[in-house]
Amino acid sequence: MFESLQSKLSEAFKILRGKGKITESNIQDALKQVRFSLLEADVNYKIVKDLTEKISQRAIGEKVIQSISPDQQFIKIVNDELLNLLGDQPSFDLHSRPAVILIVGLQGSGKTTAAAKLALWLKKKNGRLPLLVADDVHRPAAIDQLETLGKSIDVSVFSGDRKDPYKIAKDSLDFAVKKGSDVVIVDTAGRLQIDEEMMREAEEVAKIVKPDEILMVLDSMAGQDVVNAAVEFDKRLSLTGFILTKLDGDARGGIALSTKYVTGKPIKFSSMGEKLDQFDLFYPERMVSRILGMGDIVSLVEKVQADLDTQKMEEMEKRLKKAQFTFDDFIDQLHQIKKMGSLSSILEMIPGAQNVKDLKIDDEQVKHVEAMINSMTKKERSNPEIINFSRKERIAHGSGRPISEINKLMKNYDEMKKMIKNFSKMDKKGKIGKFPFQMK
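RE: above sequence
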């Protein structure tokens, strides 16, 4: 998430590293790098100008704290100003029964999927009984897609006659009452670009359903044109907030920082990944922390608590304490970690990990490791020491990987086992560290 912006901002902070204090002269080079970083991230130039001026005023007037280095002071100032830009944690309280949420946005932004993700989030986190309404009659595939998504999460989908968006909207409210649904999520029509017909239709649907929330879905990988679209949607519909999608892609960050500034409306939800449960409230402080390369340990802990099998982790810890570790154990750990998402996405939540140049986690490489272990027999996974050259040849053939990678896997396994033995001897407090695995 925002890898390019993270990297370039870190260069700005390095400029002040080693300096005795922040001065008017040395701050200019750092500000120049910040300005360049934000502009390249596609942040609106007016926002960049305003933001860097505020940072400059605060940095130059900042009282020097002896125990804190200039680069750390500067990071704190940038952190505070980015938080001011994004605003406080937005509220999302639905009091009406049924409450109505209108989902709007351009085609290709992930709008229909976001509607389904929101339905699942409300169902799991809030104990609500949502109803999805397929009101995009201009793209029949959108109706089919929403029906498929609804079925996969066990949420009812209302599509009416699949022809008249106004009738579908009106009838969906009566259907929700009969169904006992307490929240209605209406997926409206999207276009490749804003047109008058689209906006009029959205306005009319809004008048019919009288929504409690009007959320626009934004593609975080898009450019400034989407910010202009957000302004137009807000002007015509009075948006209550945004859903930011595709944060797992090569997002530059400009959309997240620009839309709040130009519309004054908050980002309420963030979505990343293809899985329907990869959706949550938008936390400004966590986003800023990750943009500045400081990780997001709170989200990491939440993912661990939500996704990992606690009983299996406790059983594994007992085995590690006894210095017992086989390839069966490793593959089980790998499956546990994969539940949390890609290893690269997990890595960026760990404070400071982004700055370790030699630490590279290639998700494709993890698949290769998994293939090699799966190509071993049960006996080989339990007793890796029996794996000789002929067995390596069979494993290589079965996994489609060269013998050189099998050798690397075996070498790393041996090193890990030695490390586990050492730590099990040192473990006097009943706790043992968790060891990442990577091919060298």
